[in-house]
Amino acid sequence: MKPVVNIKTPFLTVDGIINIQDDKGNFTGVVLIERKYPPIGLALPGGFVDYGETVEEAVIREMKEETGLDVIILRQFHVYSDPARDPRQHTVSVVFECVARGTPQGQDDAKKAIVVPYKEIPFEKLVFDHKKILIDYLHNKNAIFK
Amino acid sequence: MKPVVNIKTPFLTVDGIINIQDDKGNFTGVVLIERKYPPIGLALPGGFVDYGETVEEAVIREMKEETGLDVIILRQFHVYSDPARDPRQHTVSVVFECVARGTPQGQDDAKKAIVVPYKEIPFEKLVFDHKKILIDYLHNKNAIFK
Predict the structure, then answer these.
(1) What ipTM was reported for this prediction?
(2) Phi and psi for A71 in degrees, rounded to 5?
(3) Inter-chain CB proximity B49 and A9 less than 8 Å
């Protein structure tokens, strides 16, 4: 069977909403990164899916690369595909809800990684459509993440 | 901001699980198409997402092109991304749960479109990973579709 050629589809990415649990079993907040490259600002960690890789493999790899964390995937949360969501090109992102323990370290495309309690998310500093994603998530989220 | 170049991500597609409701308000089954091109067999209707198009726009367009139906999206169901799911190339599919009224007509890449009651789905004739998708869906599905 020959491949379908000459097709241009959007670029595929993943983003992770990482809920951090501390040593005492309390959820302390969500991981945000300070971006090293434009658009400059805060964002959920994420990146491009490689050809030949599943979206689950991609999110585990990207979370490790950008934050040093070994995340556990809880579920696929939602797919965001507005062509205007990334100013550089049309990217479609599969957003995952994840959990992890430990302290994130900003690496790779992330200058810094921080853990922010849900009630203190600086929405005005979020780039791309990550404000929308986090608002959708907070409306939808399981009550265990207080 | 310059676009990120030289990146190869998987091809993005959408598939629709269309629940058909008849004139009396009864759900009669799910739409399957008989494929015109290899791999030959039965499949959920679906197709490639255009660059610049949302996944929601893509699924409404593709369902219309392949079945003639104007579908209503109920929700994003799940993203399937196993590199082996399509024998031609790596495609990642966002699968939607939809509803529609009317009789599907096979068009475009579909030789024929049929409505199959859930208990009569011929799983052995489904191509790609559509058997897995429909089994996942039936395990997960809302009880209103009997």
Answers:
(1) 0.92
(2) -90, 155
(3) yes
